[in-house]
Description:
With 524 residues, the protein is an alpha+beta fold. It folds into 4 domains: 4-25 and 203-315, Thrombin, subunit H (Beta Barrel), CATH 2.40.10; 32-95; 325-415, Roll (Pdz3 Domain), CATH 2.30.42.10; 434-523, PDZ domain (Pdz3 Domain), CATH 2.30.42. Strands 24, 25, 26, 27, 28, 29 and 30 form a 7-stranded antiparallel beta sheet that branches. The protein starts with a strand and ends with a strand. The model is unreliable at 6-17, 23-61 and 419-431 (pLDDT under 50).
Amino acid sequence: xxxxxxxxxxxxxxxxxxxxxxxxxxxxxxxxxxxxxxxxxxxxxxxxxxxxxxxxxxxxxxxxxxxxxxxxxxxxxxxxxxxxxxxxxxxxxxxxxxxxxxxxxxxxxxxxxxxxxxxxxxxxxxxxxxxxxxxxxxxxxxxxxxxxxxxxxxxxxxxxxxxxxxxxxxxxxxxxxxxxxxxxxxxxxxxxxxxxxxxxxxxxxxxxxxxxxxxxxxxxxxxxxxxxxxxxxxxxxxxxxxxxxxxxxxxxxxxxxxxxxxxxxxxxxxxxxxxxxxxxxxxxxxxxxxxxxxxxxxxxxxxxxxxxxxxxxxxxxxxxxxxxxxxxxxxxxxxxxxxxxxxxxxxxxxxxxxxxxxxxxxxxxxxxxxxxxxxxxxxxxxxxxxxxxxxxxxxxxxxxxxxxxxxxxxxxxxxxxxxxxxxxxxxxxxxxxxxxxxxxxxxxxxxxxxxxxxxxxxxxxxxxxxxxxxxxxxxxxxxxxxxxxxxxxxxxxxxxxxxxxxxxxxxxxxxxxxxxxxxxxxxx
Length: 524
């Protein structure tokens, strides 16, 4: 099970694995309190300098007095810093507090027993009658934004999933019937429109790209139904890729924070020290895969991506993203020389979707994408952001390096589909060999069935030695090796020939296929 969870505060939990969605759980001008904080630091520096000067000039009899003065001065400076810091946080909270709302969602759900016996034949056999449903209510959080002169409530999509009725309650206690205008599954975002005028101030939006590790952040929401609860922490990490609780992929580029987030915080704002919203609280870590409890690991969707999606939902009720049609991965240390590129230069194309935009343009697995329309891309996140928010049907020039040669490919961007097709399996049979801690074999019908393979070329890994380079690199049984150091492997004979001349300590770049997707793995 995943260690991430969605959570709801009442009724039936939305999802119950172990990494929780917190479900129905930039810069601006410097404030006065922030100026006071900086002034306090200057005072402290001046005081330390004065103390050192006194110690240098005074005699032995003066040292006791000057030391006491320095201690008293330091205490005064600490008090000033504490007061200024508290004032800055309070000012930030006051800027956004009125814009945070409670989102109550009514849903219908069947009992577990009814769900298990929902087959019509079984219901007739046991004379159970029609499938019974009951109504439950869950609570989440949200915040008010303004777009093109209209105010909306933003929350998580999983908060309003399956809703038959939605009620938004502001800080004054006023209730507003509401409906979902549109959602975006990729960001777990829902845009909610109230049926009456929303006389609530909109939040100020910050720039999540300007966040740095160590920045103060504030979470505001309705954990366990306790309205407008405020917690404080810092940005613990940036750009996290977090597995979704339902196993459907990853949340990308998430903000990690230790600000306490609990059930009911989902959809609430993550706020910087200037009172600007920089993210939406979405996921909390509850425990490890082995059941060990964890605390202080929480994740928020960056506000910059939410703003991009908001404009599309407000206009069309959905988000359409452009698509290259490639599977990509970052270039790890040691891979660059094998690929004929400089370190940190571009993104590796692991595989190309047949019939997709990139395939039509002639892109190949092993190409390194270095730029889109002349804009350099150094990692997978940069490439995704460069492409996904462009117009579907737009033509872009993608610069790639192939075998050390730079090539420009015109690509007409497609619309991102849900899934890519896979191919049929063709069995073959030969004995295997062992190298790098890998035991491999030819793909037979039995092995194809055992590992669920659709790959027809290459050799399949049937065992990985504990403690070997292959094990540390993450290779597992069922992986199919299709290249060694960029040279194709179509049979056991190819494998034996290519690995025979490689030393046990040499770096090796393997191209593998796992679950139908190509990946590059460096053995160090």
